[in-house]
Design a protein that fits this description.
This protein is mainly alpha-helical. It has one domain (about 5-60). Helices cover about 75% and strands about 0% of the residues. It contains four helices and no strands. The longest helix has 20 residues, at about 40-60.
């Protein structure tokens, strides 16, 4: 497991912050942080999915 903070992972993936992941996912901050700590693979899936949806929405206007 990595010691990288969830906020840093979000920024590296192209989001503005962890708060943006929370807003776009509709899940509480505590849930997102819990996933990052206990199930980093699942956290990454959620993160990549949110980034893909954000990019798709941006590309389509």
């Amino acid at each position: 497991m990595t010691n990288t903070k969830p906020s840093q992972l979000c920024k590296s993936a192209g989001l503005k912050s962890l708060a943006e992941l929370v807003a776009l996912s509709g899940k509480p901050d505590s849930t997102i942080r819990h996933w990052a700590k206990t199930d980093p693979a699942f956290f990454n899936i959620v993160l990549q999915g949110v980034v893909a949806i954000k990019n798709n929405n941006t590309d389509n206007g």
